[in-house]
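USER:
Make up one protein:

ASSISTANT:
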Amino acid sequence: MNPRPYRTGILLLCLLALALGIRVKAADWVERLAPPGGRFIFGDSDSYWQLGLALSAGEDFSIPRMDVILGSIDRRVFRTPGYPLLLAGMFFVAGRDVPVVCARYMSAVLGALAVAAVYWLALRLFDGPTALVAAAATAIYPGAIASSVFVLSEAPFCPLLVMQLVAQVAAWQAERRVPSGAWSFAAGVLAGAATLMRPSWLLFVPFAIVCGIAFSRSRPKQLACGICMLVGLVIVMAPWWVRNDRVTGHFVPTSLQVGASLYDGLNPDAWGGSDMSFVDQRADHEYFMLSQAGVPSWEMEYELDRGLRQAALAWAREHPARVLQLAAIKFGRLWNIWPNEPQFRSWPVRLAVFFTYVPIMVLAVCGAWTFRHRGWPCVLCWLPAVYSTLLHMVFVSSIRYREPAMLPLIVLAAGAAVSWWRSKRGSNQPIR
């Protein structure tokens, strides 16, 4: 019996145990940082929690918004249902009074699954030792740890993103049509699940298809894989689309927060980061105008989204120079070498981010150049970063939004590091 696969399996299990242990400890630490009298550090967490409770109780999937003039207005398409469904499962198993730290532990488990997914992606692209290095780097990378301890949708989104890339690489590497189509369909299903966690991911599949057809030498295969992916994506998203049409009377592809998010990034007071107080003030004004116009309450959520989106686009058309300036600021915030927010800018945190993020990015660039001859599979490792950059140069930006895209970059960085190490040792075993 060959002992190497056995040793590799043991090492992988040890790395996953290490990743889970680090994340559980980090979850305990974050729990102690929760504000006095509150449960969450991020405001988004409370809405996820409320929707999860509603689903677990069989209630309407909605969150009320209190307005001084209009009273309570139900927001029925405020979030996509992916992460609330996970929380609902937790409530069903552990009870509605479960402490918040249990949700953090669930996120820690999902973070460990992301480490396993990174291992699989690196194994698809390179070999076992490189996959172990990639998994080890992900296990201790501060950004990956941070994405695994908050009550936010990043925790389930990260493993889904990497698994989608695994399926896309497998589809490209398959020599026969049926396996290639099956892997592509699976990639589309995973993309749909990821979109239900993070709505901004919806356009990644068409973005990847366009890039693949534009830059690949095998365009018929890219087109065939793209069609299968789109089928999988549509099948997963269709129930949500049907539901939204029934409750709003309109086609809503993700949620009715697109307008608010766009206005957050493009308004007279925009500065690159998020400040929902301006959005809330504008929303109050829009709600009042809609009520004065006699718009029924069930239509207000859709009309508010449209109004905020139109206001953001109108301001952008009138101030193109400021839009370009904001795009540059947002780019800098997204790829900053240390945290942007003052509460996370202590020197220990700065140094921890700097001395992990910068080497990974340098090695990822080296890996992209070293393995450029491998074509589409290595391009896929960069594509989430490009997509996220383009997206957040329009919407608000923070290093929080780059962390999922860092996971496939770690794979390229591991490939470059192992290749360099082997060349220094004079090894005749190049990465396949």
Remarks:
- Residues 418 and 424 are 10 Å apart (CA to CA).
- Residues 3-33 form the longest helix (31 residues).
- The chain has a mean pLDDT of 91.
